[in-house]
Amino acid sequence: MLFHVKMDVHLPPDMDPDVRADTLAREKAYSQQLQRDGKWPHIWRITGQYSNVSIFDVASNDELHQLVSNLPLFPYMDIAVTPLATHPSDVKAG
Ligand SMILES: O=C(O)C[C@H]1C=CC(=O)O1
């Protein structure tokens, strides 16, 4: 199942710099592992915003929820999920 996921990051301006650096490092490692695992096949920065648009490829709504709720930045993000279905005009879908 494919999902379009938009993540808007809102780190507190007064966040301790060491906590911030540690959280961002853990976020990067976690997201890159999911990308290597094929669960997170696309991630794009939205130009001019501390936001990304991503595609997740997972088995279920529950798996997506588990993956995104374990993101180290999860407490600091607004996340919008859109489930994707095959478009009838998609030439790849036959
Ligand atoms: O920077 C972001 O867009 C938030 C988050 C998503 C992956 C990652 O490494 O950080």
From TrEMBL:
Family matches, as InterPro entries: Dimeric_a/b-barrel (IPR011008), MLI_dom (IPR026029), Muconolactone_d_Isoase (IPR003464)
Catalytic activity: (S)-muconolactone = (4,5-dihydro-5-oxofuran-2-yl)-acetate
Gene3D superfamilies the UniProt entry points to: Dimeric alpha+beta barrel (3.30.70.1060)
Keyword Isomerase applies: yes
UniProt GO molecular function: muconolactone delta-isomerase activity
Pathway: Aromatic compound metabolism; beta-ketoadipate pathway; 5-oxo-4,5-dihydro-2-furylacetate from catechol: step 3/3
Keyword set, alphabetical order: Aromatic hydrocarbons catabolism, Isomerase
UniProt keyword Manganese, yes or no: no
Membrane-spanning ranges: none
Boundaries of every Muconolactone isomerase domain copy: 1-90
UniProt-listed Enzyme Commission number(s): 5.3.3.4
GO BP: beta-ketoadipate pathway
One Pfam family, short name: MIase
Subunit architecture: Homodecamer.
Family note: Belongs to the muconolactone Delta-isomerase family.
UniProt name for this protein: Muconolactone Delta-isomerase
Species of the source: Allosaccharopolyspora coralli
Taxonomic lineage of the native organism: Bacteria, Bacillati, Actinomycetota, Actinomycetes, Pseudonocardiales
